[in-house]
Amino acid sequence: MRKGSPPDFITFPRPRTLTDLIAQSLLPHPRPTPRFPARMTGLHLGPRVDKENSFTRRPPGPVIFVVILWGRTEKCLKETAEEISLSGTECHYLVCDVANREEVYKQAKVVREKVGDVSILVNNAAVVHGKTLMESDDDALLKSQHINTLGQFWTIKAFLPRMLELQHGHVVCINSILSQSPIPGAIDYCTSKASSLAFMESLTLGMLDCPGVGCTTVLPFHTNTEMFQGLRVRFPQLFPPLKPEVVAQRTVDAVRADKAFIYLPWTMHALVILKSFMPQVALEEIHRFSGSYTCMNTFKGRT
After folding, report:
1. Could you tell me whether strands 120-123 and 169-174 are parallel, antiparallel, or unpaired per DSSP bridges?
2. Beta carbons of 252 and 15 less than 8 angstroms apart
3. CA dist 36 to 20, 106, 149, Å?
4. pTM of the prediction?
5. Catalytic residue set
6. CA 162, CA 143: separation in Å to the nearest integer?
7. Dihedral angle of Cα 209, 113, 77, 56, to the nearest 10 degrees
């Protein structure tokens, strides 16, 4: 296990939900009713909350698991917070644009004063405009970079220092396989995710000697959410979109095992390996054959 892994664990009954797994993986030996805050960005666009399998179900035992949601749309935040609260978990939400550095630092201070220190930071906020470079508006291109990449700089700078001080915490980045295998029609998204991956690789290496604090980067294939609605590949039976609950489950499994990087599905490893030695002309033919070259032509997702 890497040096960034938690030094101690608490034993609970067999976990039933994703939040049970998070609590079991990161929570140290408990004090009386310890609070266990986790903050998530962009929850409504990524692995969604569901009734039986989510990040946000209250773990068994004397633990207060607190969820703080950040996002730009209050309506989505409110609906998600209400759904989480119905499961018995304390949940708060704050409207915050992670692209705005001053707003991130301001709301981080509010979180610390209202809830306490954050133990798990999940960076999931992202946008995609689904256009070529020449079709893209300049402001839209900047928006993608500020939210998808720079937003992580600000959130991690806001919460990581306290994790390092307490020697307890975990930073999670929901990235994309498109960071290593870009496609036409999503140039803003692919570029920002590649930058985000390099950022997390550097951050992860930089924390090798930081006990109790770890990093996990998740690189999934196309996930079946509104974000990439309309995306079509040539062989959907061979490359079906991932279910959000599967991505959430595997993410928590990776955090619990203190894995630094995880590809979903595992076959994405082959794609990365092929790209490392195959000539560009061969890769281009693979893109044409698989349909990834034109998969964004039918894109009508949510930005």
Report:
1. parallel
2. no
3. 12, 21, 27
4. 0.79
5. 189
6. 29
7. 50
Tokens 């929570």: give the residue: 27
**Cα gap 193→202, rounded to integer Å:** 14
Torsion of CA 284, 227, 47, 144, to 10 degrees: 80
What are the pLDDT digits (tens) for 62-104? 456 788 999 998 998 999 899 888 888 889 999 999 999 999 9
Give residue for tokens 């798990």. 120
Fold of 18-298: Rossmann fold (3.40.50)
Q: What is the pLDDT, as a whole number, of residue 46?
A: 36
C-alpha dihedral over 262, 126, 166, 57, to 10 degrees?
A: -80
Task: Give the closest residue to 129 by CA, choosing from 219, 173, 45, 190.
Answer: 190
Letter string b/e over residues 177-216, b meaning 16 or more CB atoms within 10 A of that residue's CB: bbbbbbbebbbbbbbbbbbbbebbeebbeebeebebbbbb
The residue ranges of every structural domain in the chain are 18-298
Task: Show the tokens assigned to 133.
Answer: 């470079």
Task: Give the pLDDT confidence of 236-288 residue by residue, as tens digits.
Answer: 777 788 888 899 999 999 999 999 999 998 888 888 888 888 898 988 888 88
